[in-house]
Amino acid sequence: MQDTLRTRMGWLHAWVGFAAGLVLFCVFATGCLAMFDTELTRWCQPEAPPQTDTFSPRSLDRLLPDVQDLIAQGEKPFITLPSLRDPYLRLQHHDGYEFLTVPYNPQTGERLAARVTVGGTFFYNLHYTMRTGIYGETLIALAGLALLVTIGSGVIIHLKGLVSDLTLLRPFASRLRAWLDVHVVASVPFLPFIVLMAYSGTFIRARTLFPPVSYTASIENVFRTPAPSVPETPEKQPAPPSRPFPPLAPILSEAERTLGTGQVGFILFLSQSILVSRTDASGPLLTREHVDFSPVDGHVLRHVLLPSPITHTQQVLDGLHYARWTGYGMRWLYFLSGVMGAIMFASGSVIFLMKRRRQSGRKIMFRIAEGLAIGSIVGFLMATVAFFWANRLLPIALHDRPFAEGYVFLAVWVLSMVAGLGWSGLHRPFQGWKIQLFCLGTLGFFLTPLDLATRPGASLFHAPTVFAATDLVALLVALVSFQMARRL
Amino acid sequence: MTIFVCTLLWSLSLLLQALHEPKMLRIAHLQRPAFLKPVRWTRFALPVLALMLCFLERASTAVLVWAATFSLAAVLVALGWSALARYREYFSMGARKNL
Amino acid sequence: MAAHFITLGSPKWGPGARHDATIFGQMIAIAVFPILLLIAVGTRSPLRGGLIAGAVCLIAALAVVLSP
């Protein structure tokens, strides 16, 4: 073969793309779900009524005993105020893996009797750490760099047909042709989004790859101190009993005088101060501007806003990546773009395997690669749907319920990976793809009946949007899976 | 609403672009329509109009909404065109059988 | 390594306070990494690609060492 720029880039695109693609598929898929983390948490707590009363600042004080309990356990709790996306007051804290949330009535401050769940924040955390703390963050930041390399090489390969093939999709052509078209249609129109997400995502976690100290010092630090990836629970020192906090309503009103009415997003409780922070929904700049108050008498300590041009650029990148400023329309566009990013990696991996099957199909490395692809692509989606099944089927009184939900997810994923490797090892990879696609389809298809059966007060004629949208997306995934299993 | 209108404008623009591509016409078994020549600049004007709409709604996020609606429109046109190509293929095969 | 040296040197030549300059360095490093890799792999001879990437790395390293 002639050695041209295109062939060299083709080699780079294929190998870097496949190696990082399996991780990036999961990153894009979890990113899509994290777009609706609040809504998914609401799906996971069906006992909370869909409609609630209007917010009263006085209700905040009713949460203070629970805040103090968490502080006594060494946590850093915060209260998120009701918003367009979520009508409840929520008391949250990070358990070392995820943000756990408890809903409260926004008018009375009474705790709502909802099941304990890890909710949508499970996917948010999985998106950037893979539940392995700093090691996961580094791996995903590295995958982000690989994504930038893959995009660059992909654009160079496809430069000639970038405009003419923009909307060219031939699903009924030969298999390889069809997959290539899917790959191009899922990637070229979404290049602006994918580049933005790759760059801003890697930048947000840049500290892990490009620390401001030399690599030698960083590596020494890793071996000197235990990694912060380990859940912090055993290290947490119970705080001494704290004084009662001052009433929060005047604090909120004072903060609104600086931040603007309705611009407060959450209240964070630290030992030395109470931080009242601007809502992330206030605009595309994720400023995290906050007003700090004394936890003793509630007087203003300081107002923090970083105004330099570099910080502004950072805030824009953060804001565009987290997309918390968006309305529902834009949120769905982000979701769709993320889905297409995941499809881009799935189709890219399939093409990589198809092109090498004839020559290397019997080699052990190829079989491992295909097994991993089955587990990473179909297995991941299956584990995701299994997570929602676990949320509804696990006993409500189960001890450490959030962990159990996570374990179900991981167990299904590992099982799928092992099964994929098994089928591939037995030279029957298509069987592996088909069985897992069928399982995914079945789990997705029956999620709607499960939701209707386990949601209190559910009826076909009154399906609140959060539940209906989740069920419909699962149904769509199921139908696509069945169709793919049929056509394989 | 802006998202919907922008997607519509982008879809029209990409549809016109597809009608200008010989490859796209070939897979759908179509001839280049006669009305294309007088409206050939429209495909460039429509995205500009969409961008103006986005700016009018909210300047700080206009480019992002504009780019996102472009992506959505491209997928819609790709899916629509592939369905049309499939339909035309059946149609032309049926016509051939009748001959 | 070039990307690492850019981040490492950025507090010396970057704008504003140390924190801002480091962030600025990281922004550049993330953009430079894929570009350099594409250049290194994309050139006809691997030696030429390596030389270009090596030169950028050297300049970044010099900025770390020599900047006041």
Walk me through what this model shows.
The complex is a heterotrimer of chains A (488), B (99) and C (68). By secondary structure, chain A is an alpha+beta fold. Helices cover 58% and strands 7% of the residues of chain A. In chain A, a hairpin with a 4-residue loop joins strand 2 (89-94) and strand 3. In chain A, helix 1 (5-35) packs across helix 12 (328-360), helix 1 runs parallel beside helix 13 and helix 2 (37-44) packs across helix 4 (121-129). The longest helix of chain A is centred in the C-terminal third of the chain and has 33 residues, at 328-360. Chain B has 99 residues and is mainly α. Chain B has one domain. In chain B, helix 1 packs antiparallel against helix 3 and helix 3 packs antiparallel against helix 4. The termini of chain B are far apart. Chain C is elongated, with a radius of gyration of 13 Å. Chain C is built from three helices and no strands. The longest helix of chain C has 25 residues, at 18-42. The chains are: A alpha+beta (488), B mainly alpha (99), C mainly alpha (68). Chain A binds chain B through residues 163-172, 185, 188-190, 192-193, 283-284, 320, 325, 329-330, 333-334, 336-337, 340, and chain B through 3-4, 14, 17-18, 21, 23-24, 27, 60-61, 64-65, 67-72, 74-75, 77-79, 81-82, 85-86, 89.
